[in-house]
Specification:
This protein is α/β, with parallel strands linked by helices. The protein contains six helices and five strands.
Length: about 170
């Protein structure tokens, strides 16, 4: 008897994708048959990069993983999952403080679609303190983010900062 396909969704804004995200995706790709990184448009968060740029960066960073796809979306996560045949949602937990919010999301998702399960994963210890917000702030102030993000992302952050500098 063949086992059912295990198709997972890892949603987020990924503004930008960090080494912590990368770590979770790599490990998820070894567990699940198919992993879709779903990058939310989420204009209410005022992302640094456009949706198109965030998708491009994630595709470049994750290009070596054959069972990983990157897609942008602007609808409810459970609706996106349903449309794309994804029955598992991966959520990352860096610290206990993340759990309450993620627990609420998981319960709401279950309420909206009981056929979609949420799986919590934690990054390796060396990535637990990395967040996209902190990486953006460090980069905006000219700090070195190379140990927190892939070189492609570090370069994109540097270029973005240079385009945002006031003209003298």
């Amino acid at each position: 008897m063949t086992q059912p396909k295990r198709n997972a969704l890892y949603p987020g804004t990924f503004d930008p994708i960090t080494n912590g995200h990368h770590d979770l995706v790599r490990r998820a790709a070894s567990i699940f048959d198919r992993v879709v990184i779903a990058i939310a448009a989420n204009p209410s968060k005022a992302p640094r990069f456009s949706l198109e740029t965030r998708v491009e960066l994630a595709r470049a960073v994750l290009a070596d993983l054959p069972n990983v796809e990157v897609m942008g979306y602007s609808e409810l996560t459970v609706e996106f999952a349903r449309k794309n045949g994804l029955n598992i949602v991966i959520r990352g937990l860096r610290a206990v403080s993340d759990f309450e919010f993620e627990f609420q999301l998981a319960n709401m998702s279950r309420h909206l679609d009981p056929d979609i399960e949420t799986v919590f994963m934690t990054p390796k210890e060396q990535f637990t303190y990395i967040s996209s917000t902190l990486v953006r702030e460090i980069a905006a102030l000219g700090g070195n983010v190379s140990e927190f993000v892939h070189p492609i992302v570090a370069d994109a952050l540097r270029r973005h900062r240079e385009t945002q500098r006031p003209k003298s």
